[in-house]
Specification:
Residues 10-218 form the DNA/pantothenate metabolism flavoprotein C-terminal domain. By secondary structure, the protein is an alpha/beta fold. It contains five helices and 14 strands. Bound molecules: cytidine-5'-triphosphate and calcium ion.
């Protein structure tokens, strides 16, 4: 679409992305995680690269090939993902938080494999840092984009996150609909920003990614030099 000459709307821009799930260890052989496949984040990395951007993709554990021309950094936990993001944030023009970051992690990681004993056990969890909100709070921050996976009241919750985290744009995903969101090949995003909204329709993740990136390119601040 964009690669062979022609106008590349993200030419010269640097884009940092998170994708996939995180894994929060319980002991050396077990973890808490979620069903994120990483497909949406990897589609964004691929399309952004085609649109001329220099792309760094920080990925949780997924089974997807690295898109051509993309710099990929693999992590497991939310804390590792945050550290990798902060290490790579300087000089970025755009940050897109597409990862399904685990909201909580076990308070302690057992040193050895946990043995079963009682009929029931309780695991105590603590909140993970919010990577997206941390990026948005930086004094010199990139254009910051989040995702919102919701099953109901989609616009209200998405606009809530946009305001609460201080984002420039949010892409909302109604995960109650079959065939979109987690693990699916298609998606139906609605974009929200302070003064507007845009419904991207229903299409494959490459097309959704392209439309989201085109909207980001239009909304980026003009170059200062
Ligand atoms: N996110 C993040 N770090 C976290 C949790 C979420 O960077 N610890 C990012 C996700 O990558 C996504 C956005 O925040 O871009 C929203 O994630 P979501 O799970 O929809 O929202 P939460 O703020 O975690 O709220 P909740 O799960 O309660 O709806
Ligand atoms: Ca969450």
């Amino acid at each position: 679409h964009y690669r062979d000459g022609g106008h590349q709307p993200l030419k010269g821009k640097r884009l940092l992305l998170t994708a996939g799930p995180t894994r929060e260890a319980l002991d050396p052989v077990r973890y808490l995680s979620n069903h994120s496949s990483g497909k949406m984040g990897f589609a964004l990395a691929d399309q952004a690269q085609r649109m001329g951007a220099e792309v760094t993709l920080i990925s949780g554990p997924v089974s997807l090939p690295t898109p051509q021309g993309v710099n990929r950094i693999d992590v497991e936990s939310a804390e590792q993902m945050l550290a990798a993001v902060m290490d790579n944030l300087a000089g970025q023009d755009v940050f897109v938080g597409c990862a399904a970051v685990a909201d909580y992690r076990p308070v302690a990681v057992a040193e050895g494999k946990i043995k079963k004993s009682e009929a029931a056990m309780t695991v105590e969890l603590v909140r993970n840092p919010d990577i997206l909100a941390t990026v948005a709070q930086q004094a010199k921050r990139p254009f910051t984009v989040g995702f919102a996976a919701e099953t109901h009241n989609v616009e209200q919750y998405a606009r809530d996150k946009l305001a609460r985290k201080g984002l420039d744009l949010i892409a909302a995903n109604d995960v109650s609909q079959p065939g979109q969101g987690f693990n699916a090949n298609a998606n139906a995003l609605t974009l929200y920003w302070n003064e507007g909204a845009k419904d991207l329709g229903h299409s494959d993740k490459a097309d959704q990614a392209r439309q989201l990136l085109e909207t980001i390119a239009q909304r980026l601040p003009a170059d200062e030099n």
